[in-house]
Amino acid sequence: MCLIRRTAMEDRAPPVFVFGIIADIQYADIEDGLNYLRTRKRFYRNSLQLLRNATRRWEEQRVMCVLQLGDIIDGFNKSRSASEQALATVIGEFDKSPADVHHVWGNHEFYNFCRETLLASPLNSAAKAGSGSDLLADDIYAYEFSPAPGFRFVLLDAYDISVIGRDESSEKHTRSLKLLQEHNSNSDLNQPPVFNGLKQRFVKFNGGFSQEQLLWLDEVLTLADQKQERVTVFSHLPVHPYATDPICLAWNYDAMQSVLRSHKSVVCFMAGHDHDGGYYMDESGVHHITLEGVIETRPDSNAFGTVYVYEDQVVLKGNGRISDMVLKYP
Predict the structure, then answer these.
(1) Angle value at C-alpha 157, between 315 and 123, nearest 5 degrees
(2) 28 with 74: CB under 8 angstroms?
(3) CA 60 → CA 98, 174, 195, 303, 308, distances in Å?
(4) Strand 65-68 vs strand 17-22: parallel, antiparallel, or unpaired?
(5) Which of 5, 103, 180, 291 yields a CA-CA distance of 20 to 30 A from 324?
(6) PANTHER family recorded for this chain (predicted)?
(7) What are phi and psi of 155, to 5 degrees?
(8) For 134-182, how does the pLDDT look when each residue is reduced to its tens digit (9 = 90+)?
């Protein structure tokens, strides 16, 4: 990672395409509060204003699409019977921009809605992937598409295996609960295990990827390798322990990393969830970016990015808490 100089973009040929990126808006029409650990302030109403700042900038920059990395509204909406209204409010802001928005699902989506409701909602953006695939399966929210010749985007379902993302009567819920309780003995499964280190990822607000999804991703990336495409993967949960706090890591991050490392087409993995953000380039040259969360961004700042995709590199122009970066291809 390196800081970008303004002239680095001005002196280059035009990008192949440009897209917007944002994470963890967590809008709710309530007073400011604190995070789960009561260590950080959250600006629930003002997150909508920060989204407006982002959409205005993206319109000026003529982005072709926007990637929303999950937690679009906060779980507090559920107890106030305000989930539908809150979602309509945020979607209304996105709709003011002509760019297609591709939505990733996070834990707060599942605090507000069941999987079946999400699949029938505006947060199911698979239909916008005109040059790509339909959903991987009826109940797995993962799809891929090509934003431009030679490039591919893949959106993953990080709560495919989870307690909160699956109906209690389902086999996946049973398996997920068993896995979680094997690693976390707390009565409140949102409290991390007493162990330090990577085992802290075994909490209820995280999840993971089924074998079916991993095999599908492997097939998508194999085809991308053959076509010599550049692939960016999007997920709510980070999958590299050096790009996030362990408490925000996907349960089976290692299985996902194994798939990513085996394909030369993978350029970047973008995630949210950890509101502090993070970055790491792994030994294969894949850039793991965790975006800072809107919800914990002060009203006088911002937290969104505009990504300029070139033939030889990706340039992330950050706003507010998000740093500028130049990402060379592996």
Answers:
(1) 80
(2) yes
(3) 11, 48, 48, 17, 14
(4) parallel
(5) 103
(6) MANGANESE-DEPENDENT ADP-RIBOSE_CDP-ALCOHOL DIPHOSPHATASE, PTHR16509
(7) -105, 130
(8) 787 779 999 999 999 999 999 999 999 999 999 999 999 999 999 999 9
pLDDT in tens, 89-108: 999 999 998 999 999 999 99
CA dist list (Å): 11 to 5, 7, 8, 16, 309: 10, 6, 6, 15, 15
Q: Calculate what percentage of the chain has a pLDDT beyond 90.
A: 89
CA–CA distance, 272 with 206 (Å, rounded to integer): 12
Token pair listed for 165: 């993302």
Q: How far apart are CA 171 and CA 273, in angstroms?
A: 26
DSSP assigned state of 285: -
pLDDT of residue 132: 53
Helix 253-261, helix 211-227: angle, nearest 10: 20
CA atoms of 152 and 265, how far apart (whole Å): 9
- Apex CA 260: angle with CA 208 and CA 269, to 5°? 75
Residue that has been written with the tokens 């976390």 in this structure: 184
Q: Which amino acid is at 177?
A: L
Spatial CA neighbour of 243 closest among 274, 266, 220: 274
**Coil vs helix vs strand at 201:** helix
* Calpha distance 252→162 (Å, rounded): 11
HEC string for 63-129: CCEEEECCCCECCHHHHCCCHHHHHHHHHHHHHCCCCEEEECCCHHHHHHCCHHHHHCCCCCCHHHC
Q: What are 171-177's contacts with CB under 8 Å, separation 24+?
A: 172/210, 176/207
Task: Assess contact for 157 and 209: CB atoms under 8 A.
Answer: yes
pTM of this prediction exceeds 0.85: yes
The C-alpha atoms of residue 201 and residue 217 are separated, in whole angstroms, by 22
The alpha carbon of 225 is separated from its chain's Cα centroid by a whole number of angstroms, namely: 23
